[in-house]
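Issue: copy button drops trailing tokens. Both records pasted manually instead:
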Amino acid sequence: MVTVGICFCIFNAYFLCLLCHVSSEGGVVGASTQLVLDTGLCSATICLTIILTYQAIGRSVINYAAPLWALVINESSWKCLHSPDYENEALRIATGCHKMAHLDHLQQETKTLPIKSHSELLAKQYWLSCYQSHHLSHHLTSQPAPARNMKGTLSKFDRDVVPLCDDGISEVEQYRSALHNHHSEAVVDAQLNFVPNRVLGTTPPELSSFECYLSRSVCTTLVQLSSGHCRLLNSYKACITAGITDVSPDCGVAPHSVEHLFQYPACLTQLTTQDLWDNPDAVADFLKLDDN
């Protein structure tokens, strides 16, 4: 009992340190962002650089020993890691979205797996590697299940791992193929669990490659519009500023939403909200974003 208590205290201390590190990474990423913006790189490169900085500074610490702690962490701890103060901050900086933007939208735009999904993926991949005959932990794969399931163990992933490895893994290509299958399954599961996009009401499509030719300020405005919360909309301004009403300044109709930008009678355009992803350069010209 003493040993269990000591291990529990050590894990709690580690988790608290983990939260402190992740919560402080936003300032570091923010400072790095200014350096990247000064380089004059295209918007896509800037976003990718910020995401890579976040993964190197924050996600790398979270990923450390994930096959161990991801097995015993409880739901309240997962919620702490997924809270806006931790995971959202770096992704908001990368995309330029406001705090009101849903975390799922940020992860879809940056093609980032949720922390829980990614940590469990790392645990599955490690357990898969244990099925290699030369692995130091290969003997664990043949151990019987404990009589009482007090804490989660890697064997909980047997249902996902064993069908991919049959009687063991002897070839490198077989191992790499199984790793790829696990990653693909994790991506599909994450996409299925994402909430529908606020603007489209469904899963958003892939972003057009033409976005890389737009400036950083235009791209961030387009991403804000696709999240449903943008500085150009009175529906957003009314939530943060007293005295502003959610009414269109052009026709006086409420609400002043993303959909309204493309639908009010005087706009005379064939563009729709879908074009925020399919045709971002045309939307930028239509909304005159370069002038804002």
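Record 2 (pasted manually too):
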Amino acid sequence: MSNALNWFEIPVTDLARAKEFYGRVLQAELREHAMNGTTMAILPYQNGGVGGALITGEPYVPSTQGTIVYLNAGDDLDGALRRVEDAGGKVVMGATHLSDEIGSVAFFLVDEAFALRVPNGLDLAGAAPLLCAGITTYSPLRHWNVREGQKVGVVGLGGLGHMGVKLANAAVRPGEDPGQHRGALRPLPGDCGSQQRSGDRPQAGDAQGTLVEGYREVENPPFPPLP
């Protein structure tokens, strides 16, 4: 046995964000691979060497406890640590020399649960609603793995409902103008439509069902409500 370690996996919740972070730190392009209900982003390694990946899906949960994975920073550990901070990570122990034979090590932390990066050029006032209503309504879309072509119903049309319709529209019709698919639904500000009785004018607070593409009651919904 040449190596005790054969393969490692780093659990993440937001693969796209983690892929961008590690790609910047390691200065490498990470390719994605789906297998057995999980999705991985493969970290760079040479043929015949020990490799690893970022991974998302059940039952993987990010944690600060457990195994410590040491990534290869090459000959520029200080440069790698600068890239960690530039990409939104936190250096918890700077470069520490162990020995001439082993070299130096450092520890960094990426907080998957609470670290949110606002892209450069995005107005903070415009981004603020995404940190409340946006996260609340995006979470169920992410949880149930909503994909292009599916139908999404939103009950209630307030601040959350308005945001929910906009996010659902983007999920089920990526790249399309949401105004093309309102059908018989009455247009409301933004990208929303609300089912009303014929002749009624939409009034704030009286919308019972808000939809991306029509509303119908389902006796046995395919997904149970979230706890």
